[in-house]
């Protein structure tokens, strides 16, 4: 029998074993791989990770779930009661590569992505269950880019593994979900630029989706004029009237380079 899901923790229990198998397959678990699992909940995904040979550090914030998890797994996992956004990852993985795998509470998705994409030590791979709409934004291409797309694609190679219907959870949520894979890379090496400079420019660019990119940047920043942005876009072979959502991640990086030369 499943425990009562609490809205305050954003809980929906994953009950579809087919979905669990897809997560494990995308995780590409090798024997003794270190895995940080966020929100083990009822332990369905935890069990599959253990069966695959992973060494699991599971962080659960709901105190009522700790004892059932401890009884089920004993010493086979390292179970920690904590908030994952304040959890000291460096104490456990400072010298070791690890993977982050989670059916995360959707109300912390943005904060969690920002936290693990930018902090050190970073996971080598993340497999996350997110709302389908959010998953679509993460892996988007022009003309559907967003600030979230830019941030995620700067720090990782992102792909959608699978759409997960609402019926895979109990209680059944109102929306479908998606499994998204993130393979993290060092953005400073990959792009030869501070990624936060690109994100800062993108924040200006997406400040008003109805306006053209040059107007948004010039209107939000005292550093660049409208004409400077138009010229930079033209140098990159882009329409000077482009909107923010029309640029892919490579073009956002190129635009940042060009404007800061």
TrEMBL record:
Keyword check for S-adenosyl-L-methionine: yes
Entry superkingdom: Bacteria
Keyword annotations: Cytoplasm, Methyltransferase, RNA-binding, rRNA processing, S-adenosyl-L-methionine, Transferase
Known EC number: 2.1.1.182
Keyword Magnesium: no
Major localization listed first in the record, in broad terms: cytoplasm
GO terms, molecular function: 16S rRNA (adenine(1518)-N(6)/adenine(1519)-N(6))-dimethyltransferase activity; RNA binding
Ribosomal RNA adenine methylase transferase N-terminal domain segment(s): 19-186
One Pfam family it belongs to: RrnaAD
InterPro entries according to UniProt: KsgA/Erm, rRNA_Ade_diMease-like_C, rRNA_Ade_Mease_Trfase_CS, rRNA_Ade_methylase_Trfase_N, rRNA_adenine_dimethylase, SAM-dependent_MTases_sf
Subcellular location(s) per record: Cytoplasm
A Gene Ontology term for the protein's cellular component: cytosol
Catalytic reactions on record: adenosine(1518)/adenosine(1519) in 16S rRNA + 4 S-adenosyl-L-methionine = N(6)-dimethyladenosine(1518)/N(6)-dimethyladenosine(1519) in 16S rRNA + 4 S-adenosyl-L-homocysteine + 4 H(+)
Protein name: Ribosomal RNA small subunit methyltransferase A
Function: Specifically dimethylates two adjacent adenosines (A1518 and A1519) in the loop of a conserved hairpin near the 3'-end of 16S rRNA in the 30S particle. May play a critical role in biogenesis of 30S subunits.
Binding residues for S-adenosyl-L-methionine: 12, 14, 39, 60, 83, 103
Family statement drawn from the similarity comment of this UniProt entry: Belongs to the class I-like SAM-binding methyltransferase superfamily. rRNA adenine N(6)-methyltransferase family. RsmA subfamily.
């Amino acid at each position: 029998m499943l425990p009562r899901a609490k809205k305050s923790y954003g809980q929906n229990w994953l009950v579809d074993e087919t979905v669990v198998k897809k997560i494990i397959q995308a995780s590409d678990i090798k024997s003794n791989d270190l895995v940080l699992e966020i929100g083990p909940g009822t332990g369905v995904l935890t069990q599959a990770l253990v069966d695959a040979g992973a060494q699991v550090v599971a962080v659960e914030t709901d105190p009522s779930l700790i004892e059932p998890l401890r009884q089920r797994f004993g010493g086979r996992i390292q179970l920690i009661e904590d908030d994952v956004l304040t959890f000291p990852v460096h104490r456990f993985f400072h010298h070791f590569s690890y993977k982050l795998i989670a059916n995360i509470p959707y109300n912390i998705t943005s904060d969690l992505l920002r936290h693990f994409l930018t902090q050190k030590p970073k996971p080598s791979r993340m497999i996350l269950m997110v709302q389908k709409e959010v998953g679509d934004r993460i892996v988007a291409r022009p003309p559907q880019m967003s600030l979230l797309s830019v941030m995620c694609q700067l720090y990782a190679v992102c792909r959608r593994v699978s759409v997960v219907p609402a019926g895979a959870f109990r209680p059944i949520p109102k929306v479908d979900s998606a499994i998204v894979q993130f393979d993290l890379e060092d953005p400073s090496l990959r792009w030869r630029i501070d990624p936060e400079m690109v994100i800062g420019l993108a924040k200006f660019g997406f400040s008003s989706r109805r306006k053209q990119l040059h107007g948004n940047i010039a209107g939000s920043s005292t550093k660049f004029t409208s004409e400077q942005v138009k010229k930079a876009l033209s140098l990159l072979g882009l329409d000077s009237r482009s909107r923010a959502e029309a640029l892919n991640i490579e073009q956002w990086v190129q635009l940042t380079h060009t404007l800061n030369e």
